[in-house]
Write a structure and sequence with these properties.
Elements (H helix, E strand, L loop, with lengths): L4 H8 L3 H8 L7 H14 L5 H7 L5 E6 L5 H15 L4 E6 L4 H8 L9 E4 L6 H5 L7 E4 L9 E4 L2 H14 L5 E6 L7 H15 L9 E3 L5 H13 L6 E4 L2 H13 L9 E5 L13 E5 L1 H16 L9 E3 L2 E4 L2 H4 L3
Parallel strand pairs: 1-2, 1-3, 3-4, 4-5, 5-11, 6-7, 6-8, 8-9, 9-10
Antiparallel strand pairs: 10-12
Length: about 325
């Protein structure tokens, strides 16, 4: 039979209210009393009925996280961080995969699972601000990623321009003067690829280094083969940079493979910096220097933003929340020591 709060209270010799306070982690329980109740919980094997708890609040205890591509290690790692952050609040996370397609992102944002979830964390690639302005679903929404939206929803991102400048500044400090950017796109200018390109240009200009278009490599996507194709096209055109700043780690890894095939050594001939700090970057033949967004902070801010909205404390115009980043220096710019 399922162990109840009453069973725990009788076993511990305390009131049901005291057990409830311990289970719900209220702060005004003394350490001695908390330990006493916890011993009874452990001995009896009590497990809270989370479904009933959420239903009493008019909620399901489930939120959704929609990302473009679960096969991309960055989004997989971010999803893990969101699940961990939500678990601290006894919340279950439902994962959705939009493939970065606008129609699928619209479907998700319009609440086709509104009866199931309490809130939605969405990382869009193609969704436009107008799509979200037409949204008539009242399920709280938090946006992730570096697309800039002027909308009444909390939006969590890092400073892409500053991060790109940090990456390029590091390459310059290593004596590089012909620094390519792999990751240009032709879509709207408020997307991460353009913001990172902007940071690349600004830092080179500030250092008095040329930033010709020949050093800008367009990509069709964000995967390893996209980086490989972009690097190959640049080298085939006779352009030989001494450094590469890539849109993300997957693009960087693809570029490093082509550099190896062409007989160019990383970092001695060409230094490389990626973006995202995925685990794969630590295990190649040459480990990857990268910009590391604080994924745990992004996840925590996203979950807390949803909880704030559910509690009625959301700002009317939404908030722009910025997570930190750092440069992680590895062999692709430093060499082996």
């Amino acid at each position: 039979m399922r162990v109840s709060l009453k069973d725990v209270a009788e076993h511990a010799g305390v009131s049901i209210k005291t057990v409830s306070n311990v289970v719900n982690k209220y702060q005004h329980v003394t350490p001695a009393m908390r330990a006493r109740v916890q011993r009874s919980i452990d001995e009896l094997g009590y497990r809270p009925n989370l479904t009933a708890r959420h239903l009493r609040k008019g909620r399901t205890g489930i939120i959704a996280l929609a990302v473009p591509e679960l096969g991309n290690p960055y989004f997989a790692e971010l999803a893990g961080a969101v699940i961990d952050a939500a678990a601290e609040h006894d919340i279950t996370v439902l994962l959705d995969h939009t493939r970065g397609e606008r129609e699928q992102e619209i479907l998700v944002s319009q609440g086709f699972r509104a009866r199931v979830i309490d809130g939605l964390i969405l990382s869009p690639l193609e969704l436009e601000a107008e799509d979200l302005r037409r949204r008539d679903d009242d399920v709280p929404l938090v946006l992730l990623g570096e697309r800039e939206y002027d909308l009444p929803h909390d939006h969590i991102a890092i400073d892409n321009v500053a991060a790109a400048r940090t990456a390029v500044r590091h390459l310059i400090s290593r004596g590089r003067a012909s620094i390519a950017y792999l990751g240009a796109r032709t879509d709207s200018a408020n997307r991460p690829a353009h913001l990172r390109l902007k940071g690349w240009r600004e830092e080179l200009t500030a250092a008095g280094i040329a930033a010709p278009d020949s050093l800008v490599g367009p990509v069709g996507g964000w995967n390893r083969w996209d980086g490989a194709k972009a690097m190959a096209r640049m080298l085939d055109a006779g352009v030989r940079p001494d450094a590469v700043f890539a849109y993300n780690d997957l693009v960087a890894i693809g570029a490093m493979r082509v550099l190896h095939e062409r007989g160019l050594r990383v970092p001695w001939d060409v230094a490389v910096v990626g973006f995202d700090d995925i685990a794969e970057g630590q295990f190649g033949a040459v480990t990857l220097t990268t910009i590391s967004p604080d994924k745990q902070a992004i996840a925590r801010l996203a979950v807390e933003s949803l909880l704030r909205s559910l509690a009625g404390g959301a700002e009317p115009g939404g908030r722009a929340l910025t997570a930190r980043f750092r440069l992680v220096e590895r062999e692709s710019t430093l060499g082996r020591r």
